[in-house]
Amino acid sequence: MEKGRVEAFSDGVLAVIITIMVLEMKAPAGANLEALRGSVPVLLAYALSYTNVGIFWNNHHHMLQVSKRVNGRVLWANLFLLFWLSLVPFVIHWMDDTHFAPLPTACYGVILALAAIGYVMLQQCLIGCNPNSPLAGAIGSDFKGKLSLTMYLVAIPMSFVHSWIAIALYIAVALIWLAPDPRIEKTTGA
Questions:
Q1: Sign of the CA dihedral running 92, 94, 96, 98
Q2: Which residue pairs, CB below 8 angstroms and at least 24 apart, start in 169-176?
Q3: How many domains is the chain built from?
Q4: FRET label pair with 186: which of 47, 106, 144, 179, CA 20 to 30 Å apart?
Q5: In angstroms, rounded to a whole number, what is the distance separating the alpha carbons of residues 103 and 160?
Q6: The whole model's pTM is what?
Q7: What ranges in 130-162 are assigned the alpha helix state H?
Q8: What are 2's strand-pairing partners?
Q9: For the chain, what is the radius of gyration of the CA atoms?
Q10: CA angle at residue 140 from 177 to 153, to 5 degrees?
């Protein structure tokens, strides 16, 4: 199967996810800086989530760029990834409503960890479907991917120690990936 429909569908789902995130945000009750100050935590959570969704989209784009074909396994792995990313607006809203309570903050980490697992599954399915693709060589040992998943898994129980420790770990993972992953570009010369 050609990959164009997977790319278009994924782009559409990710655009809807980002749109829902911003629509879930509540406007401040007042018209002054004091009223806006109460919205700062959710604005920062939105910025982090927007960045995370953007990172997944960016790397998803790069993976599909070097792949020529998709198959049923790729389609299901892609849907698994998109499912977990689609829960980001829900958990951001929950975190905001509970003032970043431990359980919602931990659930944010669970969702990001499962999205990361979905991304790895998609990556492996694409490599299996495109055996001569430069993707396998570009991924290598995938240190950044393994480190990110480990940090998500550490952040989940840390949410119950102090939510802001977990949030700091989520931010650290985003910072690791903020610069586009050059592995595929280096391999393909793109």
A1: negative
A2: 169/109, 170/48, 170/52, 170/108, 170/109, 170/112, 171/48, 173/112, 173/148, 174/48, 174/51, 174/52, 174/55, 176/144, 176/147, 176/148
A3: 1
A4: 47
A5: 7
A6: 0.91
A7: 135-139, 143-158
A8: 69
A9: 18
A10: 50
Phi/psi at 2 (nearest 5 deg)? -75, 155
**Residue 115 burial (10 A CB sphere; 0-12, 13-18, 19+):** buried
DSSP letter string, 60-93: HHHHHHT--B--HHHHHHHHHHHHHHHTHHHHHH
Distances in Å between the Cα of 12 and the Cα atoms of 5, 6, 18, 24, 165 are 10, 10, 10, 18, 33
> Does residue 112 contact residue 170 with C-beta atoms inside 8 Å?
yes
**What domain range is 171 assigned to?**
4-188
Query: Which residue(s) pair with 69 in the sheet?
Result: 2
Smallest CA-to-CA distance from 6 within 77, 89, 78, 103 is with 78
Residue type, 5: R
Taking each helix axis from N to C end, the angle separating 102-129 and 72-86, rounded to the nearest 10 degrees, works out to 160
Q: Which stretches does DSSP call E strand in the chain?
A: none
> What are 43-73's pLDDT values in tens digits?
998 999 999 999 999 999 989 988 999 999 9
